[in-house]
Amino acid sequence: xxxxxxxxxxxxxxxxxxxxxxxxxxxxxxxxxxxxxxxxxxxxxxxxxxxxxxxxxxxxxxxxxxxxxxxxxxxxxxxxxxxxxxxxxxxxxxxxxxxxxxxxxxxxxxxxxxxxxxxxxxxxxxxxxxxxxxxxxxxxxxxxxxxxxxxxxxxxxxxxxxxxxxxxxxxxxxxxxxxxxxxxxxxxxxxxxxxxxxxxxxxxxxxxxxxxxxxxxxxxxxxxxxxxxxxxxxxxxxxxxxxxxxxxxxxxxxxxxxxxxxxxxxxxxxxxxxxxxxxxxxxxxxxxxxxxxxxxxxxxxxxxxxxxxxxxxxxxxxxxxxxxxxxxxxxxxxxxxxxxxxxxxxxxxxxxxxxxxxxxxxxxxxxxxxxxxxxxxxxxxxxx
Length: 384
Ligand code: LLP
Known about the structure:
Layout lengths: L7 H4 L6 E5 H16 L3 E6 L6 H9 L3 E4 L2 H9 L7 E3 L6 H10 L3 E4 L2 H13 L4 E8 L21 E2 L3 H7 L6 E7 L9 H20 L6 E3 L19 H11 L7 E6 L1 H4 L3 E12 L4 E5 L8 H5 L5 E3 L6 E7 L8 E9 L6 E4 L22 E3 L2
The site of ligand LLP has 22 residues, from β10, α10 and α11.
């Protein structure tokens, strides 16, 4: 991995813990995604929740992608970074009135609506402003996917989307709501999905639904298939750019597209995951009676994924060429789950060694917190 980073002498000057962002890799990734999507005239909206760092947003906006937001704060952030309002989609099960008002005021492209109750509120708020809100219905397709249980979103018991058996009732109510315009259907089945069969199942489910809607004369102009494409956390050096080609090709092969329907995706992790790395310094090597701990200055406050989802991130010691030994790599936070990995093979670790925690560009910095009054350092950008 070392070759993909600035020289050790540069890294040694950085205050830690901090995120490193490879903007050249980000550019290459964005270009690859855009190129593959363009083959089928697919449109990508970047799922801002993955990383809302201003410079990252600016680079993604400059590459021509739209934005998928889940809050008023995210909408403000992407507008400031240069995304045009007409490329913003706005999802979320709990949209507050003032967030809906902001979206109406800015004339965003579309609301992804998650319930009948929400649809009625959007109708009312749009009516008050003499506007017609463009809406897509987020459908819960009831598809189980092979990923961590905490990041499955499209099964019946999840809070997300409109359950299939309730869809007819929503469709029946739509014509009564004069201040919303039905634009499309929206789906999102989960995140970090590497088994393409799961997306195949989604295509088949969408085809069924569309067939039903076409019988009712309600074919939508837009289909949004969400995000979820996974990345390789185990060997990031071998797969620096996610498998966009196979992903889009799968949809092109299996998803039935009626006439000139517009097809959208909301990719987060696959666009930014590999370009970010958490740089941390070892404070202590602690010999326990059954374990050896490398105690880093980064913790779950900087990268919560291992604690929250038992997520794996590859870790390397870039300061040492010593014999490989096993360490539990832990942080300084007062929680037992504040750990980046157990029995991690690392070149012999000493105090002040620098560790790289890889593939942390998505849901790393964006999920960081101030727990224990901790302060994240400024990120370091390199590569472009
Ligand atoms: N669209 C919707 C409606 C979503 O809920 C999400 C992610 C995405 C798109 C983007 O999914 P992606 O392409 O990034 O997989 N914090 C977790 C992941 C949570 C994902 C939430 N929704 C993690 O660190 O693994």
